[in-house]
Amino acid sequence: MVYQKPLPKPNADDRFFWEGCKEHKLLFQKCLDCGLVRWPPSIICPNCHSNATEVIEVAGRGKIYTYAVYHQAYHPGFEKDLPYVTAVIELDGGPHFLSNLIDCEPDEVKCDMPVEIVWEDITKEFSLPKFKLVR
Amino acid sequence: MNLKDKYAIVGLGYTPQGRVPDRTASSFHVEAISNAIKDAGLEKKDIDGLICYRHFPSLGGEPDVTPYLVAQQIGLAPKAMSQEANCARSQLLNALGWLEAGLCNYVVISYAHNPLSGGRFFGEGTDNYTKAVFGQFGATSGYAMAARRAMHTFNTGPETWKYIAVGQRKWANLNPIAMMHDRTMTFQNYYDSRWVVEPLRLFDNCLVSDGGRACVVTSVERARELRHPVVSIMGIGQHNPSCEIEQATHMAGPTGAKISGMTAMEMAGITLDDIDACEIYDCFTYTVEITLQDYGFFNPGEGEDWFKDGTIEPGGRMPVNTSGGQLSEAYYMGLTQLTEATMQLMGRCGERQLGPKTNTKTPEIILCSDNGGILQTHSTTILRRL
After folding, report:
1. Is the pLDDT of residue B122 over 70?
2. Residue B201 within a domain
3. Residue B243 falls within a domain, yes or no?
4. What whole-number distance in Å separates Cα of residue B18 and Cα of residue B279?
5. Can you name the residues that pair with A91 across neighbouring β-strands?
6. Average pLDDT value for residue range A92-110
7. What does the longest C-alpha to C-alpha distance in chain A come to?
8. Does B341 fall in a domain?
């Protein structure tokens, strides 16, 4: 079946991230001078303006900083998912990252709950990092 | 240099508002600007600065509504013009800068859009694929995330927000041009309204409106020669946290309102005790709560107590959004607030006029806020009747 939702459109700044996703690795840039792990990607560190950067893999565990429960679809590809949950994940050793919480009832979700990564292979080219509650 | 009471808002332009089918956005700009110039008692040739509020993509085959097009259609070649797009809230600051620099004598600021008849709601953001791939669209979701974090951080939620939705509706019921003039709202109506993006219900969301709004800004000296009572800009401030809400840690405050409000009050040389009413940018009910909280009207989590007993309603001790605001009058970005505050201070508000008619204090000083993005930019303007 053809994938009905929007797809990533990698650019020069974030291509490494989507290539990592394809291998089920959650990759972020880390500043070699001040140590800040940053998202969204950028050619310099917003904290110290250093361009010395390494790419690190984070483990895909963290907690829910906040979340929203959609009762209305703004794109037809999401209609069958209603109600669905988007969430900002405060990643252990990583940045705040927007994703989905899956395999849960919206009513059981609370801020600060621990979560772990689940990879969804959406096409041959792309995999999305999503999250589920740690039971 | 302190600009306190040096510049004034001297004319206001309204258009038909609400659902106004078969009208282009540029036609609302032209009508609002023309009406504002007439209302000030000025002529087209007097206007030498033009600022168009957020430039939305055009709808329905309409040519791109750039400020160039608006200037052409009102027959102006301004000395200064703003091409700012999206949620920058710099319009009044720009106007003051041009006036202070001597570039302009009369600056007109305009907003117009036709999203209700044109079919655009707050589903923007489909082009940002880092959000769209996860189904994150529009403004409601970002504010829902902020509101949810606030519910986790301090005592707030629908029990607080219902006072804002219902209180503003009571003002709209006194305002014949408000989209919701004929519809009352009870607390039960609020709770019965459908979820959009939880924790925000439909009645936590602002309206979507066709129409336009404009105002003319000039010096207080020139304002004294014009036809309306002089409403001066007493203080102004801005602050831009800028960070996308998905990475932000200011969701539950302090937002840009804190520094922006302090800056404006410092220029005006006043405290909160001097403020007679507020016109607060209300894209969502939560925005009103966090803005008033960050300004210092109450401590985090004390909003429910502060709002209850009709504080912001007709007859209340701190009237808020006296036209009905964007939740119940109409959505014209920050001009909904600035025009209503000016109308109130000029004494032109009919049934909803602050003072004896609504059992409130006759206003001398009104605080206005404006806010954009998802709590990414904030400005504060304090107006007074000189």
Report:
1. no
2. no
3. yes
4. 20
5. A62
6. 97
7. 46
8. yes
